[in-house]
Amino acid sequence: MSWVQKEIRLNERRRGCHLVHKEIVGQLPELKNFKVGMANVFLQHTSASLMINENYDSDVQKDMEMGLNKIVPETFPYIHTAEGSDDMPGHLKSGIVGVSLNIPITNGKFNLGTWQGQVLL
């Protein structure tokens, strides 16, 4: 039985929902060495989050951002504002959506549904 632990870095992005599947897979050439396994992708950030969602229609990412902004408005009278007005909403979204993904590996690839990909919020 073998395993790999690796730290990868994603490119900086403006706030929003961004499909990062290709960027993550591109930094994990070791995947091809695993016939069966599980990948845990963990985000070391307190005001961003990861999820699996639609990878085909970019309107889904736009709608996710709009929906989350309605659930977690920037205009709420937050107490924690030292790092800017958008920081606390990011913390809340991170708490709601989460910072880790468990993805099955089959025959050297992430075993996701046809329309699934990793999304950074």
From TrEMBL:
Pfam families: YjbQ. It comes from the Eukaryota. Gene3D superfamilies: YjbQ-like (2.60.120.460). Belongs to the UPF0047 family. PANTHER family: UNCHARACTERIZED PROTEIN YJBQ-RELATED, UPF0047 PROTEIN C4A8.02C. This is Uncharacterized protein. It comes from Mucor plumbeus. The lineage of its organism: Eukaryota, Fungi, Fungi incertae sedis, Mucoromycota, Mucoromycotina.
